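Hi support team,

I've been running sequence recovery on a batch of backbones for a student project. Most finish fine, but this one hangs at about 90% for roughly twenty minutes before it completes. I'm not sure whether the input is malformed or the queue is just slow. I've pasted the structure tokens below so you can try to reproduce it. Let me know if you need the job ID as well.

Thanks,
M.K.
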């Protein structure tokens, strides 16, 4: 774009996972907002407020007009990705493919994920409550399982417990 200014060199970021580490590259910045740039070109972008909010607050922008493979996943993909991840996690924890415990492990982890995400939507910015909801769910399911089966529930619960760690990091932005 002609309204962008580019700076080449090494840049030091003051936030992120590795602050004050110089990063080589090219930085492009504009003196106008996204809407002003597109108004000059004669096309008004849809979702102005949403785009401005995304650019101002999150710093990462994905244009809705981009192809599907450049956009974020839709929430419906969780119905496929969560069971697939828990299945792979159970298999990586050396659970046998032919074991009857494998579906139990996947179901427990999916219930734990669902409880954590529901609590994250009900109580935004409260990671303590959302993590407790997932832990309580996996604990209750494990207790019921051990009483019904008459043994330890650790193997059935381990995937759900391991799944609580990555899910708790998602609680900041439900």
């Amino acid at each position: 774009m002609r309204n962008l200014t580019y700076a080449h060199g090494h840049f030091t970021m003051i936030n992120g996972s590795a602050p004050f580490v110089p990063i080589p590259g090219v930085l492009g910045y504009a003196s106008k907002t996204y809407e002003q740039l597109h108004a000059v070109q004669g096309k008004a972008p849809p979702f102005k407020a949403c785009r401005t909010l995304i650019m101002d607050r999150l710093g990462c922008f994905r244009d809705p007009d981009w192809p599907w493979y450049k956009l974020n996943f839709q929430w419906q993909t969780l119905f496929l990705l969560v069971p697939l991840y828990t299945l792979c996690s159970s298999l990586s924890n050396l659970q046998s493919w032919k074991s009857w415990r494998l579906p139990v492990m996947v179901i427990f982890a999916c219930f734990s994920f669902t409880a954590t995400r529901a609590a994250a939507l009900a109580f935004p910015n409260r990671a303590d409550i959302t993590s407790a909801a997932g832990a309580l769910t996996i604990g209750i399911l494990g207790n019921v399982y051990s009483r019904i089966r008459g043994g330890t529930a650790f193997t059935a619960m381990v995937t759900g417990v391991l799944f609580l760690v990555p899910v708790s990091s998602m609680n900041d932005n439900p």
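--
Follow-up from support: It reproduced on our side and the slowdown came from queue contention, not your input. The CA atoms of residues 48 and 118 lie 29 Å apart. No action needed from you.
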